[in-house]
Structure formats: C-alpha cells, structure tokens
Write a structure and sequence with these properties.
mainly alpha, 123 residues, 5 helices
Length: 123
C-alpha cells in the first residue's frame, strides 16, 4: 500500500475537485467581504470538507468532479471565467435536480456559517 500511513485514512484530494469547490465558495461569499475575511471563510470551508468522514467526502468529491467538469474544462481551454461559475451556481440553487440543488446548499450553509460566526463584522 503505497502512500498510505497505517491507521490514517487517505484523504480525497483531486486537484480539479478543489479548484471547483473553491470557485463555488468564492461565488457564494458576500462580495463586500475584505480579502482577509474571504481567506478565513475559504479556509474554514476547506478544513470542514477535509475533516468530513470519508464516505461523505467521497460523495461530495464525486459531485464536484461531475458538476465541475464542464466549468473546469472551459477554464482549462481559456473559455470560462468566475462570473460564469457564479451564474451557474445561481441556476443550480433552484434546480429541479435535487443532488445539484443540495450540492449548492451544502456549500452555501458552510459559507454562511463562516461569514456570520468567524467574521462577525460581515453580519
């Protein structure tokens, strides 16, 4: 078992997953947050995702790969930007497809918690 420490479960850490998840969090944050507060919110969401039980994290990572594949490919080809991801997230938040809507809801709840609990001036 290469790269696995005994007694420690490996973390799900695909680079495109993290790229898309960071874009989703950035799109959901209040635009008026100063850069240091934005970094604090991003750090909180990132840490929360990493401490999730593996079976839950694997599901979120799978959704990130699935839902983020088109935006990631557009970005890699130089055809996408963060405003397009923001518009996509807005549409997804009211989607009839429940897993898509719940994906946005998960990230939105993490962002809201961080904004109101960790950055009290943002509330």
């Amino acid at each position: 078992m290469l790269g696995v420490t005994r007694g420690v479960a490996p973390k799900v850490g695909l680079r495109p997953v993290l790229w898309f998840e960071r874009r989703v969090v950035d799109a959901l944050m209040a635009p008026s947050l100063p850069p240091d507060a934005r970094a604090l919110v991003m750090s909180y969401v990132d840490e929360t995702l990493h401490v999730m039980p593996e079976h839950l994290r694997l599901g979120v990572a799978g959704e990130s790969v699935l839902f983020g594949s088109v935006p990631w490919l557009a970005h890699a080809l130089g055809r996408g930007d963060d405003t397009a991801i923001g518009r996509r997230i807005e549409r997804w938040s009211t989607s009839r497809f429940d897993p898509l809507r719940q994906y946005v809801r998960l990230f939105h709840s993490l962002v809201l918690f961080a904004e109101h609990e960790l950055v009290p001036d943002a509330a």
